[in-house]
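Module 6 notes. Inverse folding takes a fixed backbone as the condition and produces residue identities as the prediction. Think of it as a translation problem where the source language is geometry and the target language is the twenty amino acids. Below is one complete input and output pair. Work through it position by position during the lab.
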């Protein structure tokens, strides 16, 4: 396993752990304020990754993906923040949140690559990230959300996250990138 692939797997693992694969910790600490923070962070993370893809890739498929990801997650993040504001909820990260550090490390490793190596690592990272986030939303976040408006928002945007995964896999297939 090369370092980027490893980083991608670790990041996916971090996302999974972060949002509740440790039931003894997360089940007792997840509430709407922490889920708002997780949701916001997941959007922010993919906006940052998409911006890097847009900046670095010279491949049309990757640039189109990056643009879609930045546009969509920016809109979703805005909707989430607006709703949190309307509901008077301040997103509060769970104790021991290590997601920022792992995200920064993963982006730094991607940023060190260029050309085909970047495209391959970027696509694999995005596939791993979206797979982890979609899984976490379905298995842990959605069932835990109490506020009906917040739950409805997450349900509404989930197909968009799944669309990103589908499109990223299609781009990887087209460019001959295994994942
Ligand atoms: Fe996405």
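Target side of the pair, the amino acids:
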């Amino acid at each position: 396993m090369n370092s980027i692939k490893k980083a991608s797997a670790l990041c996916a693992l971090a996302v999974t752990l972060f949002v509740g694969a440790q039931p003894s910790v997360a089940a007792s600490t997840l509430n709407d304020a922490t889920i708002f923070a997780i949701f916001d962070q997941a959007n922010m993370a993919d906006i940052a990754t998409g911006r890097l893809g847009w900046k670095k890739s010279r491949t049309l498929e990757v640039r189109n993906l990056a643009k879609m990801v930045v546009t969509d997650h920016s809109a979703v993040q805005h909707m989430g923040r607006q709703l949190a504001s309307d509901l008077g909820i301040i997103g509060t990260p769970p104790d021991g949140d290590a997601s920022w550090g792992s995200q920064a490390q993963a982006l730094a490793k991607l940023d060190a690559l260029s050309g085909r190596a970047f495209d391959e690592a970027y696509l694999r990272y995005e596939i791993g990230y979206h797979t982890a986030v979609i899984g976490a939303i379905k298995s842990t976040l959605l069932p835990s959300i109490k506020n009906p408006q917040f739950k409805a928002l997450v349900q509404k945007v989930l197909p968009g996250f799944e669309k990103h995964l589908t499109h990223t896999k299609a781009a990887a297939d087209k460019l001959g990138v295994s994942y």
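Reference fact for the lab report: Confidence is low (pLDDT under 50) at residues 1-14, 16-26.
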